[in-house]
Amino acid sequence: MKEQVWFKARVISSHGRHSFVEKEDGTVLEATRKGKKVDLAVGDIVDCLQTSAEQVSIQKIEPRRSLLYRSDELRTKPLASNIDQVAVVFATRPSYNPHFIWKAMLAAETADIHILMIRNKTDFTKDEPEVRPFINQLKELGAEVVEVSATKDPEGTVKTLEPLFEGKVTLLIGQSGMGKSTILNLLVK
Ligand SMILES: Nc1nc2c(ncn2[C@@H]2O[C@H](COP(=O)(O)OP(=O)(O)O)[C@@H](O)[C@H]2O)c(=O)[nH]1
Ligand SMILES: [Mg+2]
């Protein structure tokens, strides 16, 4: 009889019944989940059974350290598991949507995950009068808020953010154009 190959991996994407897992050595494999219900979240540590050279079957999900949900009017679905912190990037150009930020704050609070607010593009000093009351409001609610300019002051941005990201699995979110990719490129060297 053929020997069964088992291993642990992390779910790196999950769309319907199709998902991809990453092994500790960085190998990425396509995975299926037995049963009908799709119960995976990105970040899950799973026990896999190798079914072919490139295919694996997810047999079991390890207990989650945390689970963040995305919810809208219609449904609630798991967004990411085993994260330590949510970092929300916002800026005044293009304009931020405060509801996006409140929703993220509520989701993190509900999941008992630390939230870090990153106000980017401080070089738009003209926008200060508009954004300052909002930032004060966030701080009054107990949020940790840092302010950076990823393009104008990349060194300062790294200096501010590096210690806050160190050793923490962080979910970086924010509306389009806020500077997520710019910040990520500074931090991932
Ligand atoms: N003025 C200014 N522009 C920035 C700053 N950070 C990012 N940008 C620019 O904003 C645009 C959107 O940034 P990007 O990182 O792609 O945003 P993402 O959609 O959140 O990933 C790009 O043209 C960046 O060069 C900043 O601190 N100041
Ligand atoms: Mg981007």
Write the SSE topology.
Layout: E1 6-15, E2 18-23, E3 28-33, E4 45-50, E5 55-61, E6 67-71, E7 76-81, E8 85-90, H1 98-110, E9 114-119, H2 128-140, E10 144-147, H3 154-165, E11 170-173, H4 180-187
Parallel strand pairs: 3-5, 8-9, 8-11, 9-10
Antiparallel strand pairs: 1-2, 1-4, 2-3, 4-5, 6-7
The structure holds guanosine-5'-diphosphate and magnesium ion.
Q: Would you give an account of this structure?
A:
This protein is of the alpha/beta class. It has 2 domains: 6-61, OB fold (Dihydrolipoamide Acetyltransferase, E2P) (Beta Barrel), CATH 2.40.50.140; 67-187, Rossmann fold. The chain contains 4 helices and 11 strands; from the N terminus they run ββββββββαβαβαβα. The protein has a 5-stranded mixed barrel. A 4-stranded parallel β-sheet has the order 10-9-8-11, sandwiched between helices. The longest helix has 13 residues, at 98-110. The mean pLDDT is 93.
Provide keyphrases for this structure.
2 domains; binds magnesium ion; Rossmann fold; 189 residues; OB fold (Dihydrolipoamide Acetyltransferase, E2P); four-stranded parallel beta sheet; binds guanosine-5'-diphosphate; 4 helices
